[in-house]
Specification:
Strand content: 5-15%
Shape: globular
Order of helices and strands: EHEHEHEHEHEHEHH
Structural class: alpha/beta
Distance between the termini: 18 Å
Number of strands: 7
Largest sheet: 7 strands, parallel
């Protein structure tokens, strides 16, 4: 089953938020999902310790020596496995990337984030070489964007990414109060109270659109691999 790794050497790019939002949405749809929280701050482990009743497995006890074994074990029994990586280029990050069916590179619309995202792409290509040329698919996903209006810097970054021929998800993860609330209240999106969280229906719609695009990509990649 697919292994989705979120990677960006810069901390604060939205890796944990993107991972948890996507994983929650898939689990709520009925998929079996595991998240391996390899972020030293363990934000998703902290979320799992809360009152949410969502059927979502979270593993926080991992290490450089254990990460591949854990990924392979969860891949054998779950429909989706997510790995939320630390914001640095480390051996653990490299080992996780070698197991990925898709690497997501979250970035905010800033020049610093974009430059760090290019380091993540370079790391992916290094691991492809180490694997004898096996292609590791990846996508850039913009985070904390405005739903209605693209800022000037966002347009410039999108243009530079396209000029560099980097694949970008059509669906961005918008700036939403609900995405912060899931960590504060340690609930799933669908468990939040719409009377207390502004824009919850829009956040749910955004998450579902992002998941639908990811599933389409993974399905297409699987079909291409099988045809080859």
């Amino acid at each position: 089953m697919p292994v989705i790794v979120t990677a960006n050497p810069k901390g604060g790019a939205g890796k944990s938020t993107a991972t948890l939002v996507i994983a929650q949405t898939l689990a709520h749809m009925g998929a079996s999902v595991t998240v391996i929280d390899a972020d030293p701050n363990r934000p998703i482990v902290d979320w799992r310790s809360g009152p949410s009743s969502l059927n979502l497995t979270v593993i926080g006890d991992t290490s450089e020596s254990a990460i591949i074994r854990q990924i392979q074990a969860e891949k054998a029994r779950q429909q989706f496995v997510f790995v939320d990586l630390e914001g640095t280029a480390s051996r653990l990050v490299s080992r996780a990337i070698t197991q990925a069916d898709l690497v997501l590179i979250p970035l905010q619309a800033s020049g610093v984030d974009a430059r760090q995202a290019s380091r993540a792409v370079a790391l992916i290509h290094e691991e492809e070489e180490a694997l004898g040329g096996r292609v590791i698919p990846f996508r850039v996903v913009l985070t904390r964007t405005s739903q209605l209006i693209k800022t000037r810097i966002e347009k410039e970054i999108l243009a530079s990414l396209r000029n560099a021929e980097l694949p970008i998800l059509k669906t961005a993860l918008h700036e939403r109060q609900a995405y912060k609330a899931i960590f504060v209240r340690r609930l799933a999106l669908h468990e939040l109270d719409p009377a207390q969280v502004n824009g919850l229906p829009e956040a749910l719609e955004n998450a579902q659109a992002l998941v639908a695009e990811l599933v389409d990509i993974l399905t297409a990649d699987t079909a291409t691999t099988e045809a080859a």
